[in-house]
Amino acid sequence: TSSAVRVHRLAVIRGDGIGPEVIDASLEVLAAAESVFGFRAELTEISAGARHYLATGELWTPALQAQLREHDAILFGAMGDPVVAPGILERGFILEMRRSFQQAVNLRPVKLYPGVTTPIDGLTPDRCDLVIVRENTEGAYVGRGSTVHAGTPHAVAVQESVNTRMGVERVVEFAFRLAERRGGTLTLCHKKNILVEAGTLWQSTVDDVSARFPTVPVDYVHVDALCFYLPTTPERFNVVVTDNLFGDIITDLGAAIQGGLGVAASANLNLDGSGPSMFEAIHGSAPDIAGRGWANPIGAVLSTAMCLAHLGETDAARAIEAAAVHVLAQLPATAGPGMGFSTAQLGREIAGLLTSGAP
Amino acid sequence: TSSAVRVHRLAVIRGDGIGPEVIDASLEVLAAAESVFGFRAELTEISAGARHYLATGELWTPALQAQLREHDAILFGAMGDPVVAPGILERGFILEMRRSFQQAVNLRPVKLYPGVTTPIDGLTPDRCDLVIVRENTEGAYVGRGSTVHAGTPHAVAVQESVNTRMGVERVVEFAFRLAERRGGTLTLCHKKNILVEAGTLWQSTVDDVSARFPTVPVDYVHVDALCFYLPTTPERFNVVVTDNLFGDIITDLGAAIQGGLGVAASANLNLDGSGPSMFEAIHGSAPDIAGRGWANPIGAVLSTAMCLAHLGETDAARAIEAAAVHVLAQLPATAGPGMGFSTAQLGREIAGLLTSGAP
Ligand SMILES: CC(C)[C@H](C(=O)O)[C@@H](O)C(=O)O
Ligand SMILES: CC(C)[C@H](C(=O)O)[C@@H](O)C(=O)O
């Protein structure tokens, strides 16, 4: 009977630049996963991003929010265009989405897959497998501050970073559960020797929550030191929990180490059921290579796998990751834009592996 | 006549851990430079740091400030000890020194020297030669903020980052002069798409000062993107100017790329003559290897060269850098703690090269 089919309502935001290309490849993989694993994805295409904004003047609207809320998750391509000033889409759409749907956790695995070229000399996959858990709704991203005497020699700009116990505790608890499942250390990354108010809140929250996870070892590393250690000894880390702004910074470094933005995936997770979670590759819209069919869709495909894992389709998620990893390992070491593969071809290959039941 | 001898009054703060060891080596190099280049360094040893604090309870005192002010520059080893809580020495001494002497600029070259092992695969010295100019007195380091409902589920921590046009302009102007001298691009590193108040002040100051340096190309890179580019394409950067906290983070990444904390040097520059500048290696007190004579003194020696350049002894500064680079290139690729060299030996070799007029 049809009631036996698991249905997931997914909103798809292709966005700009290479966003539509990598989403196309991901949807091909998703379709293969549906047929193999017996669930159904009901897709709603949503127009949003730089081109949509230029055409309509619309960013985040109440109607869009209501429409997205009807979905179980959001697959997100990328947003941005050189003609839209920095900050417009970021603050006007992305931060609004994170806030409206209380996507409290930004989850970013930093995993070096076999065969992927990393800039780090001699780094091997066994030494690079960590997850960065970034707080996603507070900190410097609250966008509070003021400037007095703006435009004069006496200008003073005050920028505030606001953290609440609620916001910190939910992400810290999530990170502890993840560290427990992974059997690894939880590392708090902050700058508590300088940022006393925020640092005290973060450290005391970690200390308190730690009591509920007696088997999880806890560590602390200053954010500057972490940027020294991450490229040299990533094996030092398993689960890293950190502030919104520090997380933004160190996850890009993580993406560099794991072989580039093309393979890095991420999830923006709602934890309380009040709205859908959102899944996206870490790369941006990359207008310089858009439209050529050269973009690496692996980050988007792995984000789709994270989405399915989140929706309970763990077998499908695992199979997609395995297939993507298999395809990645086959790519020539010199593969890059225009060199040896196309976006669509990679999507097809991964989909084909799923359908054929290998690897 | 003795009036022909240039005299520089240097305060020497050895501090803790490996601080005294690397300073010893630096002073041997300094003595050789004095005899070769015909200047005199009058040294005043100052006791300060973790051990001094534990013994006396003293951190930054008015008497110490008055004493240091009588000097032309400060050579600084390192401070810190596991038994002193994080933040005590940082805020109680280092930030006080930066503030009291208005050390407005924190200057950190990121230069890969020949023969030095970098974690970055295939990176060559010609591709890695940039300078990070970090604002050193403002931003999140002002230490302002408050917490309401501390210790309760309703705790809210507010941490402020404060930048003034004066503070930003002086460091931006310094960076433009440096970029002009180096014939390179000035890159502003910030997160202006999110931190609107601070970002607007930084960008508008760069725009304004840029008019006075029409030959210097200007670029802008978000701090997260910079952490992606720095390990992969450091050749993209020549002079980077940035906020205090971003500077703290990206300079540690820079140190990783240039082959470790052992070779990274820095200057905390006063620009208006109101107090001495301070010179230190980027590494900390490294209590785990202290007392063995294993520490790499090159960072401290190169900081001493920066000190001499600042005092007008440009020939001596250049000769020390050349000698240090020569010795670095001779070190076995596997050199590390306890492997093939001692701190004192390296100091002696560099001093010997200076005295013998080679390289
Ligand atoms: C696009 C922007 C708002 C965003 C951020 O700063 O969080 C991006 O850099 C990211 O890391 O997701
Ligand atoms: C010791 C500490 C105050 C300092 C800083 O945060 O500035 C250090 O990390 C540095 O980079 O000089």
TrEMBL record, chains A, B:
Protein name: 3-isopropylmalate dehydrogenase
SMART domains in alphabetical order: Iso_dh (SM01329)
Record key words, sorted: Manganese, Metal-binding, NAD, Oxidoreductase
Keyword flag Metal-binding: yes
Organism expressing this protein natively: Cryobacterium glaciale
Enzyme Commission designation: 1.1.1.85
Superkingdom, natural source: Bacteria
PROSITE patterns linked: IDH_IMDH
Keyword Nucleotide-binding on entry: no
Domain Isopropylmalate dehydrogenase-like: 9-350
GO molecular function: 3-isopropylmalate dehydrogenase activity; magnesium ion binding; NAD binding
Cofactors named for this entry: Mn(2+); Mg(2+)
